[in-house]
Amino acid sequence: LGKKVRVYGHPAITNWGRMIIGDRLQLVSTVARTELAVLENATLEIGERVFINYGCSIAAARFVHIGSSCSLGTYVNILDTNFHRLEPELRDQRPEPEPVFLEDNVWLGARVIVLPGVRIGTGSAIGAGSIVTKDIPPRSLAVGMPARVIRTL
Question: Is 84 a catalytic residue?
Fold first, then answer.
């Protein structure tokens, strides 16, 4: 746990693995509960000067990395697993997790969903309500369902 970490409200934190928190994290859980969940043998890394707004849900079944100076808007979801298979006869099986990386200085607008196996490049921004299904290059603005780069920053 880093220095000068600030928690507002009452987040739901479950840690059965490793959680690494950098200096000056601001975690808001006032209007709606923010959830951080790290499953067994998994790691959640949060860099320095990160802001996580209320209603966010971050789940690590293997590895989720949030770089320094990132900002997460309200109700953002980041997960490295889909928690179940799609095939009806296999829905009680958990698929293999795929790591998620938010590089430094990434901004996620309200209600963004980041799916397993995605890397969002340094300095990028993702517009509100977008679903990130593929990698986003550095210094990009991406929006939509699925999120697509509309310009460089």
Answer: yes
Query: With pLDDT > 90 as the criterion, what percentage of the chain qualifies?
Result: 90
- The pLDDT of residue 49 is 98
Structure tokens at 27: 């975690």
Tell me if the pTM is above 0.85. Answer: yes
Name the one residue in this structure whose structure tokens are 């739901």: 12
Fill in the amino acid letter for 133.
Answer: T
Cα 143 from Cα 149, distance rounded (Å): 7
The per-residue pLDDT for range 86-137, each reduced to its tens digit, is 888 888 888 899 999 999 999 999 999 999 999 999 999 999 999 999 999 9
Q: Select which of 4, 6, 84, 85 is catalytic.
A: 84
Per the listing, tokens 């970490």 go with: 5
Task: Provide the β-strand partners of residue 38.
Answer: 15, 60
Tell me the two tokens of residue 85. Answer: 């298979």
Helix (H, G, I), strand (E, B) or coil at 151: strand
Task: Please give the Cα distance from 148 to 10 (Å, whole number).
Answer: 34
Burial class for 153, CB neighbours closer than 10 Å (0-12, 13-18, 19+): exposed
